[in-house]
Amino acid sequence: MRTEQQNASPDPEDPAGPAAPSPAAAEQRGARRAVTVFPVLVLLAGVLGLLAPGTFAGGGEAVPYLLGVVMFCMGVTMTPQDFRGVAKRPWAVALGLVAHYVFMPGLGWLVAHALNLPPQLAAGVILVGCAPSGTASNVVTYLARGDVALSVSVATVSTVVAPLVTPPLTLLLAGAYLPVDAGSMVVDILKTVLLPVLAGLVVRLVASRLVTRALPVLPWLSALTIAVIVAVVVAGSADAIKSAAALVMLAVVLHNGLGLALGYGAGRLARLGEPSSRAMAFEVGMQNSGLAASLATAHFSPLAALPAAVFSVWHNVSGALAAAWLSRKKA
């Protein structure tokens, strides 16, 4: 769920603002509502998958295609300015990228090891850590009054480089738990992430007027699609959830919480300033759990996808809570 907050006024709902809101302001309101409702929607989808697993029988084969829809929506919201932002602040973007792909994979391994997770769950937690930035990270950064331009730049680059980074990191850290076919994983990420993102970017460039009218709807389409992914993943491991749910929840809360803290700390240590440090927190701590669920289902098992399903709910809840707290602090 990306949006163009960096091009809009600080508060599009300010009554002192223009009478006719811009398309960017309308998109912001849609994205803010979607990211608020999203955790509830995903939680309901998970409950549905748990209570009626037969409804989603065989749905695992559709997960990569559903993820492709989410990534296409992300690509459609991209603009050339996102890439120019990388060139304008290469040091900050590079720091965010390194922090994301060092802290979260490492934390995934540490949490799996510390909690002595079973191999399937350990691999799933590590895979979540090796995924690129979450699709809602820049919206949450906006709500936290953080540096949205930096957030968008880091999220964009982390997604683009995912085919080159995620598979070898997963092989390195999760290979001790389960066999990892890094080559096949590269192909899957190219098909389900990079190609849909590029297709969405092309559509944005050639049909900008049509896309502009559709932008407020895209966060909702992404949220609904991710909810379906979660329902399918939970249904596939419904029998194991009763015994593993508490352990997985603990692993996810530790993984996400430490990631948010270390991301923020890295920004402060690098003296990026408070708004940029807030962006770093969410770009490090929030993951593309939809991709992790898709890869875990395809390469490991439905049980290995369970941490990604739980992460989908929790990181949006924790992100929203952190954003509410940070927005009340002086930026």
Automatic annotation (TrEMBL):
Record organism:
Streptomyces diacarni
Q: What is this protein called?
A: Bile acid:sodium symporter family protein
| InterPro entries named in the record | BilAc:Na_symport/Acr3 (IPR002657), Bilac:Na_transpt (IPR004710), Na+/solute_symporter_sf (IPR038770)
Subcellular location per UniProt equals: Membrane
Q: Where are the transmembrane segments?
A: 35-56, 62-79, 91-115, 121-143, 150-177, 189-206, 218-238, 244-267
What is this entry's stated membrane topology? Multi-pass membrane protein
- Chain intervals for the UniProt region annotation (Disordered): 1-26
Recorded hits in Pfam families, A to Z, give: SBF
**Gene3D superfamilies (alphabetical):** 1.20.1530.20
Skewed-composition ranges (Low complexity): 16-26
- Chief localization class? membrane
- What cellular-component terms does GO give this entry? membrane
**Record key words, sorted:** Membrane, Transmembrane, Transmembrane helix
